[in-house]
């Protein structure tokens, strides 16, 4: 009985964690929305994720783009940074980003980037394929689906809005 309850609890928690991130099916059309609908992300955010410290900054939307940066450091050393761009693509929005090492050498090839396609927008929440942004007051919570060594997991980032 104890094993059954433990298994049930594990499956329930796993299901809830995976439900925080949605996926588009291969033939599924992306959701509709405008870059300007993500205005609630604008600002400077500081917090934790990936076992270290993180910062994310977003500028207001302009001309179908909303530009942001991210940096992650562990034990006082910069590990990597990202340049991010929410891009208007017809009636939908995609998040395109590139990763950089501390010396600014890129992870992606010159003409390539990592892309998250929109699934749906809600009030202060945005679901992208494998990535969810949610704002609760002055807190920003990001859930990111990662696959490492064949294992899928959800990484949670927790940020608080900061003044510069």
From TrEMBL:
Residues 1-19 form the signal peptide. Residues 39-144 form the DUF6265 domain. InterPro entries: DUF6265. It holds the Pfam family DUF6265. Keywords: Signal. This is DUF6265 domain-containing protein. It comes from Algoriphagus oliviformis.
């Amino acid at each position: 009985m104890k094993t059954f309850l433990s298994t049930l609890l594990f499956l329930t928690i796993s299901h809830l964690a995976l439900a925080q991130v949605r996926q588009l099916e291969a033939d599924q059309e992306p959701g509709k929305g405008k870059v300007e609908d993500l205005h609630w992300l604008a600002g400077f955010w500081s917090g934790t994720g990936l076992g270290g410290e993180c910062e994310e900054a977003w500028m207001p939307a302009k001309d179908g783009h909303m530009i942001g940066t991210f940096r992650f450091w562990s034990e006082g050393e910069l590990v990597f940074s990202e340049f991010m761009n929410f891009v208007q693509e017809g009636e939908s929005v995609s998040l395109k980003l590139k990763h950089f090492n501390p010396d600014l050498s890129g992870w992606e090839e010159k003409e390539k980037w990592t892309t998250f396609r929109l699934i749906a927008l809600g009030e202060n929440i945005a679901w992208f394929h494998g990535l969810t942004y949610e704002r609760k007051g002055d807190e920003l919570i990001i859930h990111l689906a990662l696959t490492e060594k064949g294992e899928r997991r959800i990484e949670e980032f927790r940020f608080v809005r900061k003044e510069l």
